[in-house]
Amino acid sequence: MNEKRRSLWLTLAAAAGAAAVAAFVAFSSTETMTFVDEFFAVDARARLFLLLVNVPFVGVAAHVLFRSSALSAVVRERRAFVVFGLSFLAACNLSVLSHHLMLSWVFLELSTFAAFPLIFIGREARPFGAAWRYLIVSTVGLALVFLGLLFISFGVEEVAHREVMLFAETLAPRMGATAALWRKLGVFLVVFGYGTKLGLAPMYSWLPETYDQAPGSVTTMLAAMQSNVVLLALLRVLEAYRTIEPTFVSTELLVMGIASMGVSALHIVKETNIKRLLAHAAINHAGVIAIGLALGDTATYGVMLYLVSNTVVKALLFLSTSAIKETQGTRMLSELRGLIQSMPYTALIFLVGTFALLGFAPFATFIAEIVILQQLLSTGHVAVFVAFVVIATIVFMATGRALLPTVWGEPKEAVVRRESLWPLLPKLLLIAALVVLGLWIPEPLNRLLLSAAAGGAP
Amino acid sequence: MTWPSVLAVVALLLPVFIGSWGVSVLALSVQAVCGAWIGFHHEFDSSHLGSWIALGDAALRVVLGPALLSLPSLARKEGARFELLPVNMGHWLAVGAVVFAAVALGRQIHAIDPEAPAAAITTTASCVMFAFLVLSLKGQIASQAIAILMLENGVFVFENSLEHHLPTAVQIGLSVVYVITVVCFRQALVFAAGVAKEPSA
Predict the structure, then answer these.
(1) Which residue, A3, A48, A114, A454, has fewest beta-carbon neighbours within 10 Å?
(2) Which residue of B has its CA nearest to A131?
């Protein structure tokens, strides 16, 4: 074993261990378990999101170990990657497990701080600018979320030992006592703040720059791991209110969702950088998820399925893009041609990821979008349905037109680089998961998705 | 608890009229003292561990945070050219409008819910809107860092005006988050002041 890479091997081992534990927890039991005075809980939703956080990190750790060249910033500064990467993973896991809304917020903040040095891990000026914007926008968004949670707690009547008990599940029965004013102010701030972290319009501008400037492995951590944690935190707050008012903040989420899809479509049409294009696609997907959350009911199942598929797709594409950038030396779409000839395995993986990204049948993204669209029609949101379909078509065409030539076109230089299959193994496993999800959802996973969609109860 | 809230708003205005790094950092400290004062008189319970942790959190905001940002090297680098907002009539009017809007908001909320802490809401709203004003007008890292810490102090004032405590675990988490925020800001200021290397090939 290369002495210098020992820490990266240990990171991969830790990631694989965490993913194995997450898988065991996810499928071994359906009981809700609580720990530390109920501050932490493992319910169906936590089980699903533990998988969504830990599995992509295995891909990230494997990518850094096997694919990143010795010159890449992540490998040069591997000690920082190990410390902050594992801290990020721990913070994300603890946020998922936190039953108390404020504690979940604390760990989300800590994951943001762990990501900040990772974004400019090479200590260069340009990524630093992106990292700083990520930090300030995240801090502002999360500060507003915390203020929102304080507003919510202001109206909560029942207080144990004079302490604010904002538990995700027990909050709902006590919500009736909350003054409507505080409820509205609080949830508005929470939706706006977490929406900022998700990259929803109007606070999305940090996302393309950060995703573009960060190393591919770090972008994957932000796009495929942290965004899931943010979504879970938002979902838990919404759920508490939905029990007493099923359409609470639905209009706001629909507007944010359609606006995010719209602005991302405009950017995708004229984008020339492959990583920024994928970042705009991530904003588009956040919009789809916001629409699904707005509708609730069966659309929540669609959101869960979409999340699972999207996590795999984002991990695949951002990691593949990183490998492409390292091999081809560019991220400009106009300079990337004929990857199927120059790096065939990576190109094939990228191609499958692109099909899934575009929502081709039979991938789960397609099924999830159909579920959400069906719910839009059944709830009478015809205008949103039409806007969704139009924007999705534009994104489909623009993304396909930009990405497919990178695989099939004429290469600039006909050099075929030998690709070892072993480093590609984690990505091949992700692809297998993607295909299986599209063709047949295994019963245990389907049960988990249904329970998570139903609100976490087993 | 009206006067500490008013003092916190005055502290917010100070760096707008006296544009220096030292005054900005001092303003942060004064705001934190105001928040701590409100908390101490509102919810301090010597038998409750959370109260002591909250007091420790306040001490971090009053002393440690500003101290980390006012280390001599940073003060030298930032002091000479720092303005939280350019000192001119236009910005004074803009900040005045922010405070006026916050007062109106506090009154409106108090009219709907008489139990609401109107003064604390005014302070919090002032801090939040002021931070947004600075963030939208200034791209300088130092200004943005101070603006965000002022926003956080505004949230701290509201947090301390609540009748009940935050759980001890959350309180500890908040202190850790605050310290790491300030450390990150300090490192960013140092980095931006000239540590940045040339991009590698």
Answers:
(1) A3
(2) B188
